[in-house]
Amino acid sequence: MSATPKQPTYTLCEGIDIHLPQDGMRRRDVAHVCRILANAFQERFSVAAFLFKPELIYEGGIEMSIWPGHKEGEYKAIRFGVSENVENRWPKDVSVNALQEWKDEPKKVFALSPKAKNYDYDGPVPIVTTTLRALYGAPCWTEEEVELIVISFKKAGFGVATPAKLELVKEGSLGNPRESVTARSQPTLSPPSPIPVAVNQGTTPELIAEFDRLFVRYMHSLEFTAGCGSRGQHYVDDAWEELNKFTKSNPQFEKRVPRKHWCDDDGTGGLSSGLVSGAQSCAQQ
Fold it and tell me: Do 244 and 108 have their domain in common?
C-alpha cells in the first residue's frame, strides 16, 4: 500500500512590528524594501531566484513569489496590519507590475492618524504589524529568513521590533500549521493549532485545553472580522480580553499569547456578507 501523500500546509504567525515614522510609509518605500529583500536573500543563499513584490490584498503586504524550488500556486507573504493610531491606505488595485510602478510613487500606503500627528501626542508608538504566512504548500518562514526581513526593513530606514520569542515548530519553521487548501480560489477557514505548551507545575490537561479553546476563538475572531473595521472590533476585543484574563490567572501561558490586533476597514464592511455575524456566532460558542 502506498503512503498517503502529505498534504501541504499554510501557516500564520506573529511577525515583526515596524515603527511608522512621521512621514508614514509610501509606495516607493515598499518597492525599495522589496528590492532590498531580494538582494539580501540572494546574497545570503547565493542564489538569484528570489522575487518580492507588493501584495494584492486589502490590508497590504509583501509577497515572496519566487524562490529556489518554488512550485506554481505557492507563495509566502509578510502581511501588514495597523495599530489604532495608523491609517491604512493600501490600494485595492495593486497591479502585477507594482514593483516597477511604485519605484518613485510618493502616495502613502500607511499614515499617522490625525491624533498621532499632534505635537503633544503621548499615546502608543504608531506601528505597522505583520504576520508571516506561507500559503498553498509553500515552505514555512524560517528564523534565518525573519532575520533577513528585520535587516531589510532597517536598511530601508524603518525601526523594527521583534517578538520576545519567535515560536518555531520542530522542523525549524515559523508558524502554526493549519489545514491545506487545494486551490487559491477555494480558501478555507480552519482552526489554527496553538503550539503545544510545555507542562509546568500547575499546568493540567484541562488548562491546556481551555487555553487552546480561547486561542482558537481569538484567531477566528480575526479571520471573521477581516475588513470590518469598528463594526467587528468588539468581537476581537472580547476574545482577546478573555484570553488575556485566563493567562493572568495562569501565567505559565503568558508567552503564548499573541498581541492584540485592530480590525482594518476595507471600505466595504468586510470581505463578504455574513462575516460579522459569523464572528458573533463564534464569540457565543
Answer: no
